[in-house]
Amino acid sequence: MKVLVPVKRVIDYNVKARVKADGSGVDLANVKMSMNPFDEIAVEEAIRLKEKGAASEVVAVSIGVKQAAETLRTALAMGADRAILVVAADDLHTDIEPLAVAKILKAVVEAEQPGLVIAGKQAIDNDMNATGQMLAALLGWSQAAFASKLEIDGDAARVTREVDGGLQTIEVKLPAIVTADLRLNEPRYASLPNIMKAKKKPLDEKTAADYGVDVTPRLEIMSTREPEGRSAGIKVGSVDELVGKLKEAGVI
Amino acid sequence: MAVLLLGEVTNGALNRDATGKAVAALKGLGDVTVLCAGASAQAAGEAAATIEGVARVLVAEDPLYGHRLAEPAAALLVGLAGDYDHIAAPATTDAKNIMPRVAALLDVMVIPDVSAVIDASTFERPIYAGNAIQTVKSSDAKKVMTIRVASFDAAGEGGPAPVEAIAAGDNPGLSAWLNDEVAQSDRPELTSAGRVVSGGRGVGSKEQFAIIEALADKLGAAVGASRAAVDSGYAPNDWQVGQTGKVVAPELYVAIGISGAIQHLAGMKDSKVIVAINKDEEAPIFQIADYGLVGDLFTTVPELTEKL
Ligand SMILES: Cc1cc2nc3c(=O)[nH]c(=O)nc-3n(C[C@H](O)[C@H](O)[C@H](O)COP(=O)(O)OP(=O)(O)OC[C@H]3O[C@@H](n4cnc5c(N)ncnc54)[C@H](O)[C@@H]3O)c2cc1C
Ligand SMILES: Nc1ncnc2c1ncn2[C@@H]1O[C@H](COP(=O)(O)O)[C@@H](O)[C@H]1O
What we know:
The complex is a heterodimer of chains A (252) and B (308). With 252 residues, chain A is α/β, with parallel strands linked by helices. Chain A has 6 helices and 13 strands. Chain A has helices at 37-51, 68-78, 98-112, 131-139, 192-198, 239-248; strands at 2-6, 9-11, 33-35, 57-64, 82-87, 116-120, 142-153, 156-163, 166-173, 176-180, 203-207, 219-225, 234-236. In chain A, the strands form 2 sheets. Chain A has a 9-stranded mixed β-sheet with strand order 9-8-7-10-6-1-4-5-11, sandwiched between helices. In chain A, helix 2 crosses helix 5 and helix 3 (98-112) crosses helix 4. Chain A is globular and about 65 Å long. Chain B is of the alpha/beta class and 308 residues long. A 7-stranded parallel β-sheet of chain B has the order 7-11-6-1-4-5-12, sandwiched between helices. Chain B is globular, with a radius of gyration of 20 Å. At the A-B interface, helix 3, helix 4, strand 7, strand 8 and strand 9 of A face helix 3, helix 4, strand 7, strand 9 and strand 10 of B. Strand 12 (219-225) of chain A pairs antiparallel with strand 10 of chain B. Bound molecules: flavin-adenine dinucleotide and adenosine monophosphate. Chain A: Keywords: Electron transport, Transport.
């Protein structure tokens, strides 16, 4: 079974996003970019399936600017076998919407015929939490979102999902889309020899037009602003003082 | 304009708080019809009918909807979509699973986590862990969205609105429910609680988390946790507050042994009063706390619990 893993290049999770002064968006010029953390977890899970013999090949796909090739190299260094870059934007500030990403991924799935797609639960830049579910809809496949455990069993997968009330375990028919939550695994670091080897692994380059997908956004971004700030309050010197302040504030 | 709102129904019961806040967010857009689906959903439908601003309730009772699986729920919503301009749900994990599927089936973009409704096609939503607020205008014929309930006030009592049973939709037959692991608790529910006490990695172990729980119980509060506390096994996953956990905005939020990473702040910085207890006076959580106490949680928290 082939496993497809969509990986997104996003602002590094340690970097605080800064809104541009003209309100046109978040400034990404000269900002450290990395693989979306949930996608590292997805890549790790796919590699583990291969190591266990449940998967035969792991293909990483990224859609966006040319620089997303670096993100794909990271996936290859972790252990993915090959990668597909779909160039769909020139400006690094252009974000491709989940619906368009899902349409491109659908075309990639039709070409590659994977038995399983493992995406991240959420991209930490646009916080959409939508692409995997949209791809499942477009393909008419089953979906298991927010996975914290995944087991392949013949032509089905058993997935434990993180939900508001706790955990839910479901069984989905394969092929399926799974989206990775934080506790699915702890992703490995790529070793230096594997980073070197990754440079020689195949990376195909395509464009959105090759798949005939229109990536024009459906949501026009009117403005982007900073949230209302919160100023630091005071430090109290003792528990008694804290209790006094909370009484004054009327919250206890 | 007509709005279809998927009510949050779990095991036959309506989540009144989340559903009501979503109604409050949407009622300015037109008549709100609430859909309650479940293996049993009649009681939930009757509860939804008493939310102020609800014009009509549809009840779809069928075992197919008993476990909130995305594929049948999305098929049901798509079948009803023709009559509505807006199709929405409170931004719970169930809705985040279902609504993007609905949107893609309708060939529209989903608008997740709406924190303000500007007009029928313009909405605000937080991005980058709440470090930016984006205003988006949808050009789609139908708006499919989830509502960030912590940003809206509770809805009052009204109605009762008429309740009508509807037939179940198709069964896509793609997935099956096996099991739920749900912890029973007498504490208030995290996202609707007026007070929340959260513990982080500083708490050190699952056993020591009892210190956090004791303070919460004294305050009648819900218990929350940071990701680090959940990853370390000190607290269950459904207690996680943050960018990728639950979003809360209580009257009082007490963060104990939590450093204040942006991903955690994303889930709690709209709380009315924030208290931080941390032994590191440089911890970033103090930059947003109204009252900061620098000290060891193992002595200060039991003292606080005792003095309340
Ligand atoms: C993709 C992604 C998503 C994430 N989503 C979330 C999310 O939803 N929610 C979330 O919380 N995090 C999230 N995180 C993790 C986040 O970045 C931080 O790692 C996490 O919030 C840290 O948790 P913490 O504050 O408990 O731990 P730490 O940062 O380790 O802080 C522990 C604190 O405890 C204090 N302390 C230690 N001992 C004591 C003591 N005896 N008395 C008093 N204080 C003490 C220390 O001074 C320190 O400040 C996410 C990260 C990523 C990459
Ligand atoms: N441009 C993209 N390229 C590749 N994968 C993507 C892209 N956008 C989203 N994804 C995948 O979809 C997941 C969820 O993203 P989102 O729906 O944008 O929150 C991510 O974790 C990725 O696995």
